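Take a specimen:
=====
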Amino acid sequence: MAEAGADAISLINTMKGIAIDIAARKPLLGNITGGLSGPAIKPVALYMVYEVASAVNVPVIGCGGIASASDALEFIMAGASAIQVGTASFTNPRAPLDVLEGIEQFMATEGIDDIAGLIGIARS
């Protein structure tokens, strides 16, 4: 991707999943499989950001299970230059603002002036 001229890489979106109705003995979803997202995929998403951020020379946008400032900060410390809030917005339309305000509060409490200093810090 980066070699082909991408300006950034976004990781990850949903993962394929399936649920089966044992009484009916068939998949619950009409399409058989569906997208698993939100907190369930966060550990995988965080791992992918951690791995890919060290392998490319373009910004990495982390997403997948980010619902709080702590979640977002984990992605940033893993190497994400930016983050995306998706599924959390379905239950809390204010989730992106809550995440932003939480990051700002963390930075103020920790005396951090520039979030760039946190990007990839977990790799140190």
